[in-house]
Amino acid sequence: MSSNPQPEITLYRGWDTPGQYVWSPFVTKVEFRLRTSVLPYTSAAGSPSSGPKGKIPYVDVETDTSKDCLADSSLILRKFSDQGLITDVNAKLSPKDRGIDLAIRALLEDKLCFYLSHERWVKNYYSMRDHALHSIPYLIRPLIGLLAYRGNVQKLHGQGTGRFSDSEIRGFIEEVWTGISDMLAESRLQAKGRGAGEGECYWVLGGEEPTEADATIFGYATSVLVCKAGPESTKLLKTKFPIVVDYAERIHGRWFPDYEIWV
């Protein structure tokens, strides 16, 4: 780790809800990496329009001599890792495991992300609108929400998800969580074989420490568990993939004890 004084870091999460997870998996992904690297930070609301890339999350990094604003969860974490502010958790992975780790992240961030967007913005539009646009006065929220809805429908159609039926998308979501669940089940067995105690965390690649993929999985698991605009995915995770919930609960207990847990 760097010998320089640690900078003051402010993480903009999009919502002024201290002590609670937000619906964005990318925010929790960053928080996971900061906490597991024991890097202090302060949370603030912020807004997509205030961020340098027009989206949440973004961070302010302030030192005695400079102040930077960084955006995009992957770029934020890469910058912090390069600067020695957080642990380079993938440095000791074999080339094969680095590839698997990258594939897991891509599966969630480039596949599941769009399936969940469809569930939230298309199938449960009003719940998503009022949560995502909470800071916009109610009288004009329907108009802004309609623009957001049309933008998401257009994006999902261009990306491809919007061309599938609801049942097909549900099948894709279940397929993703099946793969993650199967990997976690094997990892939990490996952890028990090493003598891990009851309630200890286990990690998707089976190692003794988390990797970048774990940050992403935890981000998406918590997002699904707390999001009120994705009831089908929440029910699916709780009923069919209890090991994913168990995995998230163990991480919550160790690294996020100050946060409200999902019910």
According to CATH, what is the class of the largest domain? Mainly Alpha
Please give the number of β-strands. Answer: 4
Physical arrangement of strands within the biggest beta sheet: 2-1-3-4
Number of domains: 2
Note the quaternary state here: single chain
What string, H for helix and E for strand, traces the elements in order?
A: EHEEEHHHHHHHH
Cα separation of the termini: 37 Å
The major β-sheet equals: 4 strands, mixed
The rounded Rg comes to 19 Å
Structural class: alpha+beta
Q: In percent terms, what proportion of residues is strand?
A: 5-15%
Q: Tell me the CATH topology of the largest domain.
A: Glutathione S-transferase Yfyf (Class Pi), Chain A, domain 2
Shape: globular
The average pLDDT value, as a whole number, equals 95
> Regions with pLDDT < 50 over 5+ consecutive residues?
none
Helices, by number, come to 9
* CATH architecture annotation of the largest domain: Up-down Bundle
In helices, the fraction of residues equals: 55-70%
